[in-house]
Design brief:
The protein is of the alpha+beta class. It has a single domain, classed as Roll (Nuclear Transport Factor 2, Chain: A), CATH 3.10.450.50. The chain contains three helices and six strands; from the N terminus they run H-H-E-E-H-E-E-E-E. It has a six-stranded mixed beta sheet with strand order 2-1-6-5-4-3, with helices on one face. The protein is globular, with a radius of gyration of 14 Å. The N and C termini lie far apart (37 Å). It comes from Geodermatophilus maliterrae. It holds the Pfam family SnoaL_4. InterPro entries: NTF2-like_dom_sf (IPR032710), SnoaL-like (IPR037401). This is Nuclear transport factor 2 family protein.
């Protein structure tokens, strides 16, 4: 698989893992020293959440409060910079909620990611910033 294909797989594995509540799979998309932050609209910076454990606590806590089925749709993936073992990637998120027989767009967002290819050959997030356009 090409580096670009492997990088795109990480973005999509993250989305599907969140939607399917597969925290082991999601954890495997982050490096041990990963950092995640987010901002909702023009609000204050949330985070950073540092280390895989900190990022995963945020994800687990977020899922615990959900009563709907989420679908994270990642599109417009642009690899802005790539070396043999690192990449900078931008993409869009459309966040959909499925509940009571209806699908509703909750928000859109932009992901700004940095990834690293680790010793096992797998690409993982080292930094992920989520810029949500709307609160939900």
């Amino acid at each position: 698989m090409s580096a670009r294909g492997a990088i795109e797989n990480v973005l999509n594995r993250y989305s599907i893992a969140y939607d399917e509540n597969d925290m082991a799979e999601m954890a495997d998309t982050f490096t041990e020293d990963a950092v995640l932050s987010m901002r909702i609209a023009d609000g204050d910076l949330i985070g950073p959440f540092e280390g895989k454990a900190g990022v995963m606590k945020l994800m687990t806590d977020s899922l615990a409060g959900q009563t709907d089925q989420r679908r994270h749709v990642t599109t417009n993936i642009v690899v802005r910079k790539e070396t043999d073992d690192s990449a900078v990637v931008s993409s869009y998120l459309t966040l959909i909620s499925v509940k009571d027989g209806a699908a509703t767009v909750l928000s859109t967002a932009r992901y700004e990611d940095e990834l690293r290819r680790e010793d096992d050959g797998a690409w993982r997030f080292t930094k992920r910033h989520i810029q949500l356009d709307l609160p939900y």
